[in-house]
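Worked example 3 (structure in, sequence out).
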């Protein structure tokens, strides 16, 4: 890759799933990647070392940094360290997130706070730390891994969907506010993939409330059967599709990138059409106000 086309890319949640695929794919493509994660000296120390060894063996530019998206000081410190050492951040991929499953009534207020802190406020923390640098350079790309369920409701994914719905709205706000600075903001809306987000999902903890819904009742049982059918076997979608989609976005000219990109076929039926319709209505709505 021509080094003039090399981008410095910060990726959150790089330990596994989409994040792991993204950092490996982008670094192999010739970009300098900052793979960030929390507890880099604790429970994720092994993963961090594995990534560093992989990068050395592959001959790619990949650096690991401590970054907890729920901690302002951690986010600011990581961004400051990267800028001090490498001088710039061209692209941010807000990937870190947690899932949820269960009846909405069964989640405590603390669980709700945690869900939104990671999935919604976390990207805002990262963007807030990076944006002064990007605005000064009048260039940048903010990518947010949202979800098909951040646009279409699926039973059982309630809190997760709510946090991703909120993130979608915030990304649209960014896209208008940052356009004068040549900073593009994009939501990638993945369908279902066989990553480990299900294993890391938050379950509703108030079992007393859940008892009132009846023995064995769960709003997402049909969803589990659907995903089990479509996300296993040789024809299951490859999570690398998300990383490839990010490459495509990075190679597009500034100002020509779409606001939303749907990737995957499992659980995304009708989503492209929904986005086309809402984009049209949104434009007409702002036009009617002279905005």
């Amino acid at each position: 890759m021509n080094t003039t086309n090399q981008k410095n890319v910060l990726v959150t949640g790089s330990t596994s799933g989409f994040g792991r695929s993204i950092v490996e794919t982008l670094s192999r493509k010739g970009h300098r990647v900052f793979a960030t994660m929390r507890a880099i000296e604790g429970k994720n120390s092994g993963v961090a070392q594995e990534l560093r060894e992989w990068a050395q063996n592959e001959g790619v530019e990949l650096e690991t940094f401590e970054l907890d998206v729920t901690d302002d000081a951690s986010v600011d410190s990581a961004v400051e360290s990267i800028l001090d050492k490498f001088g710039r951040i061209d692209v941010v991929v807000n990937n870190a997130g947690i899932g949820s499953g269960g009846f909405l009534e069964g989640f405590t207020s603390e669980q709700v706070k945690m869900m939104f802190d990671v999935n919604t406020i976390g990207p805002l923390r990262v963007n807030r730390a990076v944006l002064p640098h990007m605005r000064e350079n009048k260039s940048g790309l903010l990518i947010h891994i949202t979800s098909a369920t951040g646009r279409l409701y699926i039973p059982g994914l309630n809190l997760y969907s709510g946090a991703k719905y909120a993130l979608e709205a915030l990304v649209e706000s960014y896209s208008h506010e940052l356009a004068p600075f040549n900073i593009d903001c994009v939501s990638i809306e993945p369908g279902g993939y066989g990553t480990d987000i299900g294993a890391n999902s938050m379950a509703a903890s108030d079992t007393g409330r859940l008892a009132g819904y009846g023995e064995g009742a769960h709003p997402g049982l049909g969803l589990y059967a659907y995903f089990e059918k479509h996300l296993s076997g040789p024809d299951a979608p490859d999570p690398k599709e998300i990383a490839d989609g990010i490459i495509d976005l990075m190679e597009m000219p500034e100002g020509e990138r779409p606001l939303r990109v749907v990737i995957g076929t499992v659980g995304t039926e009708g989503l492209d059409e929904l986005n086309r319709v809402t984009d049209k209505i949104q434009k007409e709505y702002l036009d009617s106000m002279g905005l």
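Notes: The chain has nine helices and nine strands. The radius of gyration is 19 Å.
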